[in-house]
Design goal:
This protein is α+β, with helices and mostly antiparallel strands. The protein folds into three domains: 55 residues, RNA-binding S4 domain (Structural Genomics Hypothetical 15.5 Kd Protein In mrcA-pckA Intergenic Region, Chain A, Roll); 79 residues, Pseudouridine synthase I, catalytic domain, N-terminal subdomain (Alpha-Beta Plaits), CATH 3.30.70; 79 residues, Alpha-L RNA-binding motif (Alpha-Beta Plaits), CATH 3.30.70. The protein contains six helices and 17 strands. The strands form four sheets. Strands 7, 8, 9, 10, 13, 14, 15, 16 and 17 form a nine-stranded mixed beta sheet that branches. Strands 3-2-5-6 form a four-stranded antiparallel beta sheet. A two-stranded antiparallel sheet has the order 1-4. A hairpin with a 2-residue loop joins strand 5 and strand 6. Helix 1 crosses helix 2. The radius of gyration is 20 Å and the shape is elongated.
């Protein structure tokens, strides 16, 4: 490759350096977080040359050769972010890695369960892009029971506000002493979608846990613990 030959676009460089997905990198670049050869660049499509020095938030970044994907069983009252300005616990407090990792998607503070963290920007982009309709399985504990009409309505779509509809498939429902344990599957990923669904359907949600993502299952991984995915598990994430 010649000295000044175009290498790749800046947003792709950030993605392949483990900063964020390519889509999120667009926004980060526009927020003046990125420098090329000491000068701030606001253009995600800027062409980076092979010998250019790229920095993110003042630190030089390089392309990643070893890709890592970790699965965390996220506890409650933990923020899904790399750092928090209010001193609250984040998912990074539970993960030990010398490599810079970022969460794939988001679980809200009170939701527990399966959360992936990676330095693989392409995987992050694939799993979070709405058009790929990646399935996400949850267990919800509610007061009462979902009736047949409720299930049919949820399968068709429930208005959840802000001109959005929430949609999910009930896989299983068990009711004991007035409370139901419901396993449901989503293929969308709107902000706080399940909580908004149950609120609109007047069902009190007591707890929510993610147990599956694509072909991957949480299994018996203990809350607050993490493990590295195998190559086969990573490949399974691309299967829909």
């Amino acid at each position: 490759m010649k000295k000044n030959e175009i290498f790749m676009r800046l947003n792709k460089f950030l993605s392949l350096s483990g900063i964020a997905s390519r889509r999120k990198s667009d926004n980060l670049i526009k927020m003046a977080t990125t420098e090329v050869n000491g000068k701030i660049c606001l253009d995600p499509a800027f062409d980076v040359n092979i010998n250019d020095r790229v920095s993110y938030e003042g630190k030089t970044i390089k392309l990643i050769t070893d890709k890592i994907v970790l699965m965390l069983n996220k506890p409650a009252n933990v923020i899904t972010t790399v750092k928090d300005t209010h001193g609250r616990k984040t998912v990074m407090d539970f993960v030990k890695s010398k490599t810079r990792l970022t969460p794939i998607g988001r679980l809200d503070r009170d939701t527990t369960g399966l959360l992936l963290l990676t330095n693989d920007g392409d995987l992050q982009q694939f799993l979070t892009h709405p058009s790929n309709r990646i399935s996400k399985d949850y267990i919800a504990i509610i007061e009462g029971r979902m009736k047949k009409l409720d299930i049919k309505k949820l399968n068709k779509g429930v208005y959840i506000g802000n001109k959005e509809y929430g949609k999910a498939k009930i896989l299983k429902q068990e009711t004991i002493k007035g409370r139901s344990k419901i396993t449901l599957r989503l293929k969308h990923g709107k902000k706080r979608e399940i909580r908004r669904i149950f609120f609109r359907m007047r069902k009190k949600l007591l707890s929510l846990k993610r147990i599956g993502l694509s072909k991957l299952k949480l299994g018996d991984l203990r809350e607050g613990c993490f493990r590295q995915l195998t190559d086969n598990e990573i490949k399974s994430l691309y299967q829909r």
